[in-house]
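Reopening this one. Same input as before:
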Amino acid sequence: MSKKNDTQSGAYNPEAEGAEMAFSGKMSYGDYLGLERILSSQAPLSDAPDELLFIIQHQTSELWMKLMLHELEGARTAISEDHMPEAMKLLARVSRIMEQLNSAWDVLRTMTPSDYTQFRDSLGLSSGFQSLQYRLIEYALGNRNTAMIRPHEHVPESLDLLKEELAKPSIYQVVLEFARRQGLDVPEAVTATPADRPHTEVPEIMALWQKVYQDPGKHWALYEVGEKLVDLEDYFRRWRFNHVTTVERVIGFKRGTGGTGGVTYLKRMLEVELFPELWHVRTEL
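Same output, byte for byte:
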């Protein structure tokens, strides 16, 4: 059939315009993305209809977190090498990834308590707080609670990744090292070794950010990276809040499958500040 006749009949034939239609021995869309492997990785353990939703929600979140870790590592390297425009792009992308993670809760919230109870027992002791990638993200951002290594000790590869992350400076420490290179005063103790505990407010760092925010033009690179970190933590806080409200909506105040206090545990996480000086400096301006 001619291209003209195709148009007249309403049947579009992409082959007529040169599109490849035969893929025997050639790389296809599914081959490149490994879709056969990905789409066969959902294995519900019950007959509950909503278990597939639950699995896909968490698997896609882990994929986004994999990309988030990749971009955070790139940003950390870029800042340490004074490549600030590149770092700004990567940090902006991380915030957009967090936006995707936040939107995913809207889908999960369509699951009712009755839906969830049909398969909750199938989860055993598995729980989101055991996510290795989430822990690596928190460690990269500076919330280095080493007690949270314990759930990963049974997997040597996971333990190695966490120790490897803890051997690096957090992204906030890298930013503060950049500030020192820009001639600002940064206490040696804050950046001398990779952090092994969550960062808490330091008066000298507050004074540093006051200088930056009082004269952005003079310290533009630091001002910009400071705002990028605030933007990222803003989305991170929203993610935590959405997590809390979704869990409360679905299971109320029951204990979590992994043994945590459920909503009570998650609400404590809302109080965590990754970059406290960047938030508190607003009060001082």
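So the earlier flakiness isn't reproducible anymore. For the record, The chain has 14 helices and no strands.
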